[in-house]
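Reopening closed ticket. The problem is back. First fold of the pair:
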Amino acid sequence: MFNSAPSLSLIRSWKDVSAEWKKLRRDFSERTIHDLRVATRRMIADLEVATAVTGSRKAYRLNRKFKKVLERLGPLRDVQVHLLNSRRGTSVWTSTFSAFLKQREAEEIRRLRKRMQEETRKGFRRDVWNTNRKLKSIEEGISRPVLRAAIQANIDKKITSVLLADARFRRTSSNEDLHRMRVQFKRLRYAAEVAKPIIGGFTNLQMQKMRKLLKAMGEIHDLQTYMTALAEWSGRKPPLELQKKHDVLMTAFKARPALTEEFNFRNRP
């Protein structure tokens, strides 16, 4: 029915997840963890659209399972980012902190290796293919306008969450609210990647801006969590140079336009 138009599919994203999952079982490097996290986020975005289109509880539950995978990868990712920051430090105690983090990294790798077994990956594969069959069956039976409306509703919901989070951060300027906005913005970015071929609307410039903004938020978040981890480990305040760097990044970020001004979300072409 829609052979000439872009269609929904979970298989492309699953193949990316599966390939990165296999790499992870051989290599638990920072790069591998990052790539699997990105592939998993794209899989989650696809499943959110599948849930919106089909109303399937199975798609929703599978989405929850992939979110748990993302959560499992988080602690190792944080330790590895902290390691990168600690190696840039010049003081004796940050060098000692690096040694502590290396031990933590080894512990997290052992934990994750147990959770990311081959049998687990095969179980995900079966669930993805079953959900994809349901998605394709429903997609073939509905009109293009109905499909576009379901995808648009999913996007609009995420835009609302992002704008509310941005407004809250502008009131509080807190690291916690910046992180909440970052999470919501990530979800919008990946949902936009899924939706763009079908409903259009998002320009390449908007997608580029979203990636740059997420990078800026990520730098602030990683530095803040590193300073927190360092303070908890050492029992004293982080070096003043780190706080100054954080303040410079935060000041520059707060000086940007509000999202309602920077992104014309509500009136996309």
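Second fold of the pair, where the issue appears:
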Amino acid sequence: MGQDMSLPILPVDAMTPEEDEGLRTVEQRDPFPDSSWIETWGPSARVLLDRALSSLRLTRSDEVTILTTSDATFVSTCVSITAFNHGRISRIVTESTKVVIVIHEFGYVYPDIVTLSRECRDRGIVLIEDCAHLLATDSGTTIGRLGDMALYSLPKVIPIRSGGLLRSHRSLDVPPPGAEEAEVIDDVRRAADRYLGAAWLLNQRRSERRDVLGRYLHLDEPVEPAVPWAVPVHTPSRVDTEARFRAVEFVSTLEKTTAFIPTNPLVALDEFRQIAESWAASTEGTNR
């Protein structure tokens, strides 16, 4: 790979003036056509998750169940630690479950999310869809609209430095933000207004980058449809692979034989091709 190659996780870290101009002038599409939801903006998705759980007035004996697409051991500490501050944590739904946080992990849809949402509704369980890695923009897509709340981490999906968005069927029963935080939120909203309308294009580019990687590498993908935020690639040793490809900012996990390559939509397709070819040609690679 070229010495000047760089594949960061966040879109903003690959932003150029040309890309900025292109995203501002591309056809704008509303990623949230269903206007009945209440939108709460915040400095980060983690802060908004904390406030959402706080508004539910949970007790220490109440259970917050965290489900992920892969059902792997690793769960984002942004979710698990935040949930732990409000109640007991579980990885399965039990009789004590009051809230389910379902994570559409790395942009891959949780299996049978429709059935899960129906079961939660029947049992009176609050369902929070964690869409930190997945901003669905197709008007026919129901992801982010099946639960009681949907949480978005904006820097992961559009090129801005910080900010979160929580969409819900009810307003959060929490104190209003202070003056300093309100100023931050205003900045977040202005930045989101610039780029959210181009999210459909960023999603399309992510899928194209996944396809390039898939032509060369053994992908450990779930079967559900997705806009892949990071592609899971099989490798004998994740640690060794990450050490060899220094230009790639791999997504941090505890997996031993899977490395997660970000599908940063602002990094050129040719750079993904070079990474995939180099990986497949290496002695540790998994070329097909």
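Update: turned out to be a display glitch only; the data is intact. The chain has nine helices and nine strands. The chain has two domains: 11-24+199-281, 29-198. Please close again.
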